[in-house]
Amino acid sequence: MGGAAVALLAATRRRCTPPVSSLLSRAARGLHEATAAAEEDKARARRRRSSSSRLLGPDISDTWDPTPRAAPRLPPPRASEVDCEPTATIIDGKSIAEDIRLQISEEVRQMKNAVGHVPGLAVVLVGDRRDSESYVRFKVKGCEEVGIKSLLAELPGNCTEDEVVDSVARFNEDPSVHGVLVQLPLPQHMDEEKILNAISLDKDVDGFHPLNVGNLALRSRKPLFVSCAAKACLELLLQSGIDLMGKHVTIIGRSKVVGLPTSLLLQRHHATVSVIHAFTANPEEITRESDIVISAAGVANLVRGSWLKQGAVVIDVGTNPVEVITDVYCAFA
Q1: Using CA atoms, how far apart are residues 280 and 283, in angstroms rounded to an integer?
Q2: DSSP 96-111
Q3: Which of 44, 205, 235, 310 has a Cα at 20 to 30 A from 27?
Q4: CA neighbor of 208 nearest in space, from 199, 220, 218
Q5: 183-186, long-range: CB within 8 Å, 24+ apart, which pairs?
Q6: Residue 122 β-bridge partners
Q7: Is 92 a catalytic residue?
Q8: What's the pLDDT tens digit per position in 188-200?
Q9: 164: how many CB neighbours lie within 10 A of its CB?
């Protein structure tokens, strides 16, 4: 009886065990589903990265703790626990930019197939500043890479304000142009605000219009456009997985191109922001206490290693030409 029971149990197990081919098929199907899910997660992450609501920060109301408690003080590390050779992690801006370009290129392609048109960007360049010419070249090249139409109006440095305003007006009226920007800085004899205010609000891609700046400052509102330099700083931080909420961020420079809009964007992400400018009394001390430092002062070699605490995140905005002087010694026999 016992032997028959064992034989019956063994036969039952053999019948319940699926064949090897079935197991392989299930494993392959599971691998395929996992791969598809991973690709969907990547696509979803790209969509999240492109979302303006993500860039403009979470909508969380300020609630103050009436009884804040001091954080416990930790004992200083022993000498054996201190890392004597800290290593730095480079934020790969080129890789992030390439990801964004690929996404925009696909969106432009879909737009062209759907409506037969592509976005158009117009740039007004006044004068022959090397840095301005370099920035404009990058913008034109960027448009070409993703399929955006680009137009460029180049004016001499001694032209009048009215000539610049006329160029802006023509682009405002051109239906094939969806964004207009005037490359800054302008020559000193020109009224910058007058020229920038001539740009149509719905084509103000630099986000300099008072309504765009005002809506950016008010967390409950959404601007039509945000400064591209400020957006770039936020994209680098967000896509690098850096938590901004409650972090102390120091911005060096308060220009309307970078410093001001970046500080407003960071406050939307609930960071504690300090802005350093030419009249700040103790810039080194403020910067040394910061978790994140964004330098946008337009001055080469301004921030030194002594300005930064260990583990700080640093973003350098802009390009500064540096002259290199080489001494040549000639020896004669």
Answers
A1: 6
A2: HHHHHHHHHHHHHHHH
A3: 44
A4: 199
A5: 183/123, 183/124, 183/125, 183/126, 183/132, 183/135, 183/136, 184/132, 184/257, 185/129, 185/132, 186/126, 186/127
A6: 151, 180
A7: no
A8: 999 999 999 999 9
A9: 22
**Single-letter amino acid, residue 309:** K
C-alpha angle 215-96-277 in degrees, rounded to nearest 5 = 50
Q: How distant, in Å, are the alpha carbons of 99, 238, 263, 296, 308 from that of 93? A: 10, 12, 20, 16, 21
Catalytic residue among 204, 206, 231, 291: 206
Distances (CA, A) of 92 to 95, 99, 196, 240, 289: 6, 11, 33, 9, 25
What's the pTM value of the predicted model, to 2 decimals? Answer: 0.73
Chain-centroid distance of CA 86 in Å reads: 26
Query: Which helix (H) or strand (E) element contains residue 155?
Result: strand 149-155
pLDDT of 249-306, one tens digit each? 999 999 999 999 999 999 999 999 999 999 999 999 999 999 999 999 888 888 989 9
Structure tokens at 171: 């682009």
Are the CB atoms for 270 and 58 separated by under 8 Å?
yes
Q: Which tokens go with 61?
A: 């109301």
Tokens of 93: 């801006």
With both helix axes pointing from N to C terminus, report the angle between 130-146 and 93-115 in degrees, rounded to the nearest 10.
Answer: 50
Residue 190 tokens read as: 């020109």
- Confirm whether 203 is a catalytic residue: no
CA distance 318 to 256: 14
Token reading at 136: 């404009």
